């Protein structure tokens, strides 16, 4: 196969949802279709039910051992599909945001009874920023749901994106009859004995006026579907793929993931319309997937929690060219040539050594602590991919060494955990103390646990009252120097030596923004 053919047949995406909407269930059903797994229950849910550390550790342990579940690759009808897993818990939203930088499209799962929920809204913000094409799957139609038209309006309003139903449900809850596939003109009938099977009975119905419809769903529901269908064609413009690819229009499907219902319709349409790997932006130029030379970047580093294998795995997204095993690549940040003797690919539960990979693929690289998020690999060109975000943390604590004999271990552990993007380290300009900033409170427990179990170091947290940290920049060197002098008690530097302003209160931040007009206060930075 040529490079272009390999690119064209790839679809790399993430499934996102508010916890409990059905992301894990849908992922699993998709894998069943691809024959990547054979039994239900093979995909571990990565959600944290009680928000407890023990829960997190258990999950990390599972994920660490079968780190393969972070990326799930499979083939379906000649198409290579890569699903990137994202953590369910909002305290790990940063990890999700970064994963979204490595996908070409997204499927959003929404619970039909609950509608659009908080986390979905936040994740959609990231998709909008990056103009990522999104498809929506409205789930749990086997339960009593909101009216489908109301749901469509809600998605449009709450996620701020135009929608176009490509399937439509016939009733829901106890009287759920099935889904009419507008995209492929077929009717899928829902009968309870189809539960958990891979194929629902489908009938091709090109003309909704055909009396056949009445025979299948009964006169009342047939009439309802005809009315709904007229309304859909009247209200919504015909499906416009370009608008979808531009991130302006979300096609919507309905179904019930647990019953494997409506999932095939979603998958087949997805394969048809979802984008193959798209160009990636670097500081200097745009990289096209079909360029001959290999380029890629690390978007995630996963520590192995298996005590027998302490090493880490760096996840490399291939952006262009053909990646080959045992071939030298330039690690741009260090300037070193590196080659990988056992790069791995992820096929559902399994992880296997591969000889080559293509744009859109994710390759696992064995890492002993050399790689950082954002690191670029090329065949010699000094590129740096942009847009891998690091968010302004919202929770802060001083980190103190609790075991004087383990000072070095602590320093190394903190350093590596920061490279993994678990949290951010700041050094106060006032007293030189080190401050850890995170997005969610759970990370403090995770850091403490991991420092102890992976690095043999002990830390202690001490409170510090900070409202927000933001990076400051200015073209006006005089004003910047003046600001730093006046605010010196609130100044810190991040790992890269960049200036960070630690605002005590929201008022202090607003005041600073008003008084120092030449200074840009930034709430995200890049790796
Ligand atoms: P998440 O990854 O988005 O957090 O959701 P997950 O798939 O774990 O699903 C959350 C719950 O919703 C699960 O139930 C799952 O069985 C259920 N679910 C998923 N799809 C459907 C559906 O189409 N219809 C119905 N009725 N339920 C669905 P749980 O009780 O939390 O877990 P479990 O004990 O069943 O595994």
TrEMBL record:
GO molecular function: GTP binding; GTPase activity; translation release factor activity, codon nonspecific; translation release factor activity, codon specific
InterPro entries from the UniProt entry: EF-G-like_DII, EFG_III/V, G_TR_CS, P-loop_NTPase, PrfC, RF3_C, RF3_dom_3_sf, RF3_GTP-bd
Domain of life: Bacteria
UniProt-listed SUPFAM superfamilies: EF-G C-terminal domain-like (SSF54980), P-loop containing nucleoside triphosphate hydrolases (SSF52540), Translation proteins (SSF50447)
GO BP: any one term: regulation of translational termination
Binding site for GTP: 17-24, 85-89, 139-142
GO cellular component, as recorded: cytosol
Keyword Nucleotide-binding among record annotations: yes
Cellular localisation: Cytoplasm
Keyword hit for Manganese: no
Keywords of the record: Cytoplasm, GTP-binding, Nucleotide-binding, Protein biosynthesis
Record-linked Pfam families: EF-G_D2, GTP_EFTU, RF3_C
Cited function: Increases the formation of ribosomal termination complexes and stimulates activities of RF-1 and RF-2. It binds guanine nucleotides and has strong preference for UGA stop codons. It may interact directly with the ribosome. The stimulation of RF-1 and RF-2 is significantly reduced by GTP and GDP, but not by GMP.
NCBIfam families with a match to the protein in the record: prfC, PRK00741.1, small_GTP
Family statement: Belongs to the TRAFAC class translation factor GTPase superfamily. Classic translation factor GTPase family. PrfC subfamily.
PANTHER family named in the record: PEPTIDE CHAIN RELEASE FACTOR RF3
Entry protein name: Peptide chain release factor 3
Species this protein is from: Alistipes communis
Lineage, highest ranks first: Bacteria, Pseudomonadati, Bacteroidota, Bacteroidia, Bacteroidales
């Amino acid at each position: 196969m040529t490079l272009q053919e390999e690119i064209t047949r790839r679809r790399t995406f993430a499934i996102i949802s508010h916890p409990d909407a059905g992301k894990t269930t849908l992922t699993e059903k998709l894998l069943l279709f691809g024959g990547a797994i054979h039994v239900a229950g093979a995909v571990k849910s990565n959600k944290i039910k009680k928000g407890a550390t023990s829960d997190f550790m258990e999950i990390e342990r599972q994920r660490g051992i079968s780190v393969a579940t972070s990326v799930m690759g499979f083939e379906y009808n000649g198409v290579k599909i890569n699903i990137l897993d994202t953590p369910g818990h909002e305290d790990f939203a940063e990890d999700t945001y970064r994963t979204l930088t490595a996908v070409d499209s997204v499927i959003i799962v929404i619970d039909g009874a609950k509608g659009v929920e908080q986390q979905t809204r936040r994740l959609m913000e990231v998709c909008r920023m990056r103009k990522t094409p999104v498809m929506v799957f409205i789930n749990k139609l086997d339960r009593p749901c909101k009216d489908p038209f109301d749901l469509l309006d809600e998605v449009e309003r709450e996620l701020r994106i135009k929608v176009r139903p490509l399937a439509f449900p016939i009733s829901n809850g106890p009287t759920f009859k099935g889904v009419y596939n507008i995209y492929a003109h077929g009717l899928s009938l829902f009968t309870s004995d189809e539960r958990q099977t891979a194929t629902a009975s489908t009938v091709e119905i090109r003309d909704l006026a055909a009396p056949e419809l009445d025979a299948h769903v009964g006169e009342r529901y047939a009439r309802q579907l005809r009315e709904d269908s007229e309304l859909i064609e009247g209200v919504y413009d015909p499906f416009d793929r370009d608008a979808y690819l531009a991130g302006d229009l979300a096609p919507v499907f309905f179904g019930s993931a647990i019953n494997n219902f409506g999932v095939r319709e979603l998958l087949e349409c997805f394969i048809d319309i979802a984008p193959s790997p798209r160009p990636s932006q670097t500081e200097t130029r745009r990289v096209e997937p079909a360029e001959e030379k290999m380029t890629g970047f690390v978007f995630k580093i996963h520590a192995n929690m298996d005590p027998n294998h302490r090493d880490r795995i760096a996840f490399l997204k291939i952006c262009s060219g053909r990646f080959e095993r045992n071939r030298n690549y330039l690690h741009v940040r260090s300037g070193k040539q590196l080659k990988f003797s056992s790069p791995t690919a992820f096929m559902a539960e399994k992880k296997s050594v591969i000889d080559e990979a293509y744009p859109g693929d994710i390759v696992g690289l064995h890492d002993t602590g050399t790689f950082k998020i954002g690191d670029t690999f090329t065949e010699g060109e000094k590129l740096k991919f942009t847009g891998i975000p690091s968010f302004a943390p919202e929770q802060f604590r001083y980190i103190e060494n609790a075991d004087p004999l383990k000072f070095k271990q602590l320093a190394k552990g903190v350093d590596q955990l920061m490279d993994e993007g678990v949290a951010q380290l700041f050094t106060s300009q006032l007293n030189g103390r080190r401050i850890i900033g995170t997005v969610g409170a759970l990370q403090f427990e995770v850091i403490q646990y991991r420092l102890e179990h992976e690095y043999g170091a002990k830390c202690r947290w001490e409170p510090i009252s900070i409202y927000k940290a933001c990076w400051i920049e200015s073209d006006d060197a005089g004003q910047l120097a003046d600001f730093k002098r006046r605010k010196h008690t609130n100044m810190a530097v991040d790992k890269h030596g960049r200036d960070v302003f630690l605002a005590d209160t929201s008022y202090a931040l607003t005041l600073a923004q008003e008084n120092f007009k030449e200074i840009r206060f930034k709430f995200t930075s890049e790796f």
